[in-house]
Here is the input.
Amino acid sequence: MDFDLNQEQSAVLEAVETLLDKHAGAARAVELAAESDYDAGLDDALEQAGYGDIASAMGRLEAVLIIEAVAKRGGVVSAGARLLAAPALSLDAPPGPVALMRTGHSGPVRYAAHARTLLMLDDECARCIELEPGACPAVPSNFGYPMGRVSDEIAAGGRALAPGSGPRLQDAWRLGLAAETVGCMEGALEQTAGYLKERKQFGRAIASFQAVQHRLAECAIQLEASRWLTREAAHGAGSSEAIATAAAFALDAAGHVFAETHQLSGAIGFTREHDLHVWSMRLHALRQELGGVAGHRRAVVDQRWGAGSSQGSGEGGR
Amino acid sequence: MEFDWTEDDARHREQLRDFLAEELPADWETISQHGPGGDAQAAFSRHFCGRMAERGWLTQHWPEEYGGQDASPWRHAVVGEEMWAIGEPRGAQYMNVNWIGPAIMTYGTEAQKAEHLPRISSGDVLWCQGFSEPEAGSDLAALRTQALRVEDDYVINGSKIWTSYCNHADFIILLVRTDPNSRRHRGISVLLVPMDTPGIEVREIPSVVGERYFHEVFFTDVRVPMSTRLGPENEGWEVVGHALQFERVGAARYARAAVTLDRLAEIAQERGLLDDPIVVDRLGEARALCEAARVLTYKVIDLRAKGSPPTADTQLARVLGTRADNAIGVLALEIVGPEALEYGSFADSNFRLAMTAGVAVGATEVQLNLIASRFLGLPRE
Here is the structure.
């Protein structure tokens, strides 16, 4: 076992960071959010650098590292769907951006308004739906991502992929969710810890109060455990169980980190001028997918103890 | 990054499981119901550790010059997981092989090495650790027990508390104040004291954790030769700090919690509780917690294997290990139901051992302080 990045992984991350320095960051995320827009520039840059194929070229772990990094910098690109879900279905260079949806889902879908490819999770088979520009109307949302609504007609279309593609899509989607959650939690926690070190009340930095320190320490524990569970699950032949476990932990942690970073930041944390929302609001969007925390936990139980309890695991089945 | 076990370590885990299946008696659950400090388990540990020693497994992580095999920290972790998961048949001896032996290797005189290391590596000696005192718990540096020089001896007066295993121990590794004018971390020394030295009295502190779990140890004019001192005089704080730097991650609590959880899932299935979404949710949550504690512990082992200086990763892992143990202890009560109320039952035994997790070997709050300062770099004032 080895928890350090190897040379290739360090090189990839360094290159991605350089690219993110140029294209991403909280200010860019805020600018895009004002127009509910997608970051086509960042998407192009990632695509041109070849990161779309990183999962097949290097592995899922490397894709996870990139998704984490993009989320930490507030990147408004559908990295999980493009870097993990599409390759899991052997879709090379699908028209992008790529959005993900599950049969029976009702409500806005992340990135659907801008997506040119929609991957639909049915039970055994996944479907690939090509979207015309403007096919899915934009939906206003406060949760940090551009959203769109997919009509029943569109959701019913597309071509079915091979049997077994459903579970593969589900694993890839879940892994991407966990990785993105890690990046968003890290962004939110760094922002909050940095602010609390500066902000003085009662004549001292808020971060020097033990009551505050313990709460930040708890967030750090949750974040680090989420990060390493996710990376471990992404490595090699990481199983569906390992992926569900990582997602169950990370998405639960996301609720905790949201609540704590906002509580500790005080009123400024709710404003648009303070960047916390760039990461924090997304955490709750991520908690809506694949049945949320309850859905991931149920998947853990199914995978580990073969409970046959998967009935009602749809988003309405909590 | 690489998260797979080597073939050798994976094979060793299987060997250990086969060995445990052979060596543990049919009534192991009864023997182990009071935990590593119980009378039956302490007695069994001498037999069991002898059997491990015969195979060269008890101290395989020790250097070859002391009879070990220089096995990696990963191999050592496999042993720790398998032993703790099944209720720690090594009893208190896990401390001997994990850190007391290595501390003697690092700081001991040739005579101390010759006296202690062969006994530890053959598995027939029990040790306990005398650290906490009535006025020095989380604030260990406040300790008061004194050892004053009289001729070529130390004369020890004071008391230790919460001491586990001392009712069976042959030796105690003792933190004492050898400079009576010192304060805090200075002026402390480590002594290796035979428990049958005149003037030592052990009293059990009855507790809800179980039989013979906590004790108080009183030292009244206990006279031991200066040759019992481990390391330099008045530098005992550094000696213990160094010896324990990687041990603070604690026992593989997550491994035992995970085994308990598997059994709870089985019970839940037998009772048809897996149709209950609340039970499913709790099981999934608990499993994720065990795995989270495991992976953070592995991060610490990775640092150790690379010879990196210890970091606050140890505290991160420790807090989650505690949480996993506590959570599954409570979940066992809930899933088993009223049968858990019988003393010595599966859920009861598990709960009793789990309930001390957040306090033993450094309270969670102290770990959180360290995470705040060392991991997050938060200011003190």
Summary: Strands of chain B lie at 127-130, 146-150, 153-161, 171-177, 188-194, 200-205, 214-225, 229-230. The first helix of chain B runs from residue 7 to 23. The first strand of chain B starts at residue 127 and ends at 130.
